[in-house]
Amino acid sequence: MAWDLRGRNALVTGGAKRIGKAIATALAKEGANICIHYSSSESEAKEVKTVLECLGVKSWLLQADFDKNGYEGLIERAAEETGGIDILVNNASIFPQSTLRDMTLEGLSSNIRVNAWAPFVLMRDLARISESAKVVNLLDSRLSGYDWTHAEYILSKHLLAVVTKMAAVEYAPGLAINAVSPGLILPPPGKGMEYIERLKKTVPLKKRGSPEEIAAAAIYLLKSEFLAGEVIYVDGGRHLIEYDRGPHPD
Ligand SMILES: NC(=O)c1ccc[n+]([C@@H]2O[C@H](COP(=O)([O-])OP(=O)(O)OC[C@H]3O[C@@H](n4cnc5c(N)ncnc54)[C@H](OP(=O)(O)O)[C@@H]3O)[C@@H](O)[C@H]2O)c1
């Protein structure tokens, strides 16, 4: 029997836009109530809330900036609003450009704070108050290869990948923790679709994936009754090849 998502309460970080919005929508279509976390996208978050309520589920908004320790107490705030959190999707992240040449400790710290420390604190806090919850962390298919131009980001995602596996053991059986590693899905904020077109040749299936495919993998992991510490690469096979050897064409 699959874990029934109907009537569960989910917190989706960075749920106002893009992949987070697709995951929130897919969860709502499964009947889960959604607490949408956002940092700066208040109007988009309100729009998503309206759409989710039209799907017949409850929805709440929570603002928090993870770069300013906004993850502290977020699980408690979400639990108070909703009556209890059953599902956590750690989706929010930053993706700034940096190379090893120009990497700074401040930049690395900021990436770690938002992309790894915040998800970890949310998992740890959820483990303290829940005896039966599920978590999906968003990683990156570049973890299996290389990323010349996002050094601070990729290091922070490596940390999240390791913490995902550690937490999957440490917080079991109360939390079932798994991850999705997206490949080429959406251009980074500020870049157009030509970014995707240029990089499609690095994907064995020679195409990009959709946010809905990431959401479908997250739903699969959440419904599972027997997965822990698993990572699903949704990337057209990109993690199988060393696609980023040499300077990135950015
Ligand atoms: N896009 C891709 O092709 C791709 C590829 C590989 C991996 N991924 C991973 O998949 C996930 C979703 O990707 P995406 O491209 O949809 O993400 P995104 O648009 O770059 O970011 C998602 C959300 O993160 C929130 N966020 C940023 N800084 C924050 C902060 N300081 N505090 C709290 N929240 C903050 C933002 O919320 P506000 O808008 O409210 O500020 C943003 O909407 C990420 O974890 C990403 O690393 C994506």
Structure description:
- By secondary structure, the chain is of the alpha/beta class.
- It has one domain (9-240): NAD(P)-binding Rossmann-like Domain (Rossmann fold, 3-Layer(aba) Sandwich).
- 40% of the residues lie in helices and 15% in strands.
- The protein has helices spanning 18-29, 42-54, 74-82, 105-129, 151-170, 193-199, 211-223, and strands at 9-12, 33-38, 59-63, 87-90, 133-138, 175-182, 231-234.
- It has a 7-stranded parallel beta sheet with strand order 3-2-1-4-5-6-7, with helices on both faces.
- Strand 5, helix 5 (151-170) and strand 6 form a beta-alpha-beta unit.
- Helix 1 packs across helix 7 and helix 4 packs parallel to helix 5.
- The protein binds NADP nicotinamide-adenine-dinucleotide phosphate.
- Residues 14, 16-20, 38-41, 65-67, 91-95, 114, 138, 140, 182, 184-186, 189 line the site of NADP nicotinamide-adenine-dinucleotide phosphate.
Bound molecules: NADP nicotinamide-adenine-dinucleotide phosphate
Rg, alpha carbons: 17 Å
Mean pLDDT: 95
Q: Give the CATH class.
A: Alpha Beta
The CATH homologous superfamily is termed: NAD(P)-binding Rossmann-like Domain
Sequence stretches where pLDDT stays below 50 over 5 or more residues:
none
Structural category is: alpha/beta
What is the name of the CATH topology? Rossmann fold
Order of strands, widest sheet? 3-2-1-4-5-6-7
Total count of strands: 7
Strand residue content: 5-15%
Q: Please tally the helical runs, counting DSSP H or I stretches of 4 or more residues.
A: 7
The N- and C-terminal alpha carbons lie at a distance of 46 Å
C-alpha geometry: globular
CATH architecture assignment: 3-Layer(aba) Sandwich
- The percentage helix is 25-40%
**Major sheet attributes:** 7 strands, parallel
| Count of structural domains | 1
Order of helices and strands: EHEHEHEHEHEHHE
